[in-house]
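Q: I'm building a small set of examples for a reading group on sequence design. Run inverse folding on the following structure and report the sequence directly after it, with nothing in between.
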């Protein structure tokens, strides 16, 4: 069953029970791009509802919206925020029109819910109009980017919680492995000794830096352009609307939103998206590097480094019996590649704005929200299915240190760089141990050599003793 609605293009059938209307239906008909619907991102739907709620409160207080209609709009927005109507947002996340389809989708759903609250039927827009009431004093060009920013802020808070849990897992492993002596490596070659705990603590520390970066960068979203309407001049918005709407949105969301100083500048500006996307990319790059390390450290089991064991999650081959692959870090790597690619998409979309509006904001919103969503899922997967279950091959790690050419570095202050180089070269060529060659060449006594090569003397700065 259908109802018929009309717009400037003409008449169109809309499913009778749908709370969305004709412009949403046109978007559904027009944009078959990703197969991913707006309903896949409930955080954006909630943000759109909050913006319409703040707008209605503002318009009513300024005397341009009837209080009964305002109350119905606010009630409709509150119901949408619960997630009850997420399925009413069926259009593709990538769409032409600078987000107009999305803005009209929320306008239509709010209007039709409000109509039922007021005792009317869906589509009886003379009583509550998507344009004249829900979209009053607004344009897609201020309501849509404001919603994206609110969605990004809320999503970022959740992302940080997931990141902190992953950091804690790395820190726990750092403590567990702090006594495990191993060889550090630079350029994939033996370097100097360290502990496995130091390695995992470093993973935790590098990620903890990004908690602050994500927070700082997301704070740029707190400046909004509500009241700008089409291009920032505020045409069709009542005086005082911009500042009051920002204040109302801040009160409703408990977030310190402020009105942009220059709405003409703020309307086409996508700089905050670029900065935040770069923070997501930074996290992705770090996570991918960590997963590369985990794959190297667990390589083997007989012909690789084999310093750690990753939890066995699934058979690794359809042809090689007994093979187990590092599938969880591999999945994290691939997720990171997608986030890095999304950052390039955001960059190009931001660059592609012209004059008083950037029409590419739908793909910016999609890229940012997708990056946050898949990062959260992948970090949880990495933490639960990999990091928490890692074990160390302690004796193997120690044996590699004792057999390494790299420990000769610790002897530099005592026997000199020239002698150290000679010992390292001979040990490598003759497959002998550094330890034995130092004694054979009578460069140090056994007691002194044992003291120098004590792990505690190789894991940090210390005073040299003659």
């Amino acid at each position: 069953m259908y109802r018929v609605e009309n717009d400037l293009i003409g008449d169109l059938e809309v499913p009778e029970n749908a709370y969305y209307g004709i412009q949403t239906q046109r978007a559904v008909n027009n944009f078959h791009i990703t197969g991913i619907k707006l309903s896949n991102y409930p955080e954006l739907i909630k943000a759109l509802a909050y913006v319409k709620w703040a707008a209605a409160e503002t318009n009513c207080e300024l005397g341009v919206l009837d209080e009964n209609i305002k109350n119905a709009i606010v009630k409709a927005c509150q119901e949408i925020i619960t997630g009850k109507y997420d399925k009413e947002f069926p259009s593709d996340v990538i769409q032409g029109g600078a987000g107009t389809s999305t803005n009209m989708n929320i306008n239509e759903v709010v209007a039709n819910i409000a109509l039922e609250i007021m005792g009317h039927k869906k589509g009886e827009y003379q009583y509550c109009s998507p344009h004249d009431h829900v979209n009053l004093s607004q344009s897609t060009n201020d309501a849509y980017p404001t919603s994206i920013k609110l969605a990004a802020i809320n999503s970022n808070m959740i992302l940080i919680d997931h990141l902190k849990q992953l950091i804690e897992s790395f820190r726990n492993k750092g403590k567990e492995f702090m006594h495990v002596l191993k060889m550090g490596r630079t350029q994939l070659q033996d370097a100097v000794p360290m502990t496995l705990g130091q390695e995992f603590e470093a993973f935790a520390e590098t990620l903890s830096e990004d908690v602050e970066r994500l927070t700082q960068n997301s704070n740029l979203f707190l400046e909004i352009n509500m009241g700008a309407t089409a291009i920032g001049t505020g045409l069709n918005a009542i005086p005082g609307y911009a500042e009051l709407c920002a204040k109302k949105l801040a009160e409703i969301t408990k977030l310190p939103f402020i009105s942009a100083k220059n709405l003409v500048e703020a309307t086409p500006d996508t700089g905050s998206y670029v900065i935040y996307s770069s923070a997501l990319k930074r996290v992705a790059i770090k996570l991918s590097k960590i997963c590369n390390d985990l794959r190297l450290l667990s390589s083997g089991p007989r012909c690789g480094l084999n310093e750690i064991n990753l939890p066995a999650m699934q058979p690794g081959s359809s042809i090689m019996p007994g093979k187990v692959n590092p599938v969880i870090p591999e999945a994290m790597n691939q997720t990171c590649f997608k986030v890095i690619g999304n950052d390039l998409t955001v960059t190009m979309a931001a660059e592609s704005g012209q004059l008083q509006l950037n029409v590419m904001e739908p793909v910016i919103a999609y890229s940012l929200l997708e990056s946050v969503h898949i990062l959260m899922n992948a970090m949880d997967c990495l933490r639960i299915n990999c990091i928490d279950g890692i074990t160390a091959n302690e004796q193997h790690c120690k044996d590699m240190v004792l057999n390494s050419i790299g420990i000769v570095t610790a002897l530099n202050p005592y026997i000199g760089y020239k002698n150290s180089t000679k010992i390292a070269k001979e040990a490598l060529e003759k497959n002998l141990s550094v330890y034995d060659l130092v004694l054979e060449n009578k460069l140090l006594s056994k007691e002194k050599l044992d003291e120098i090569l004590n792990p505690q003397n190789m894991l940090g700065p210390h005073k040299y003793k003659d």
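The longest strand covers residues 189-195.
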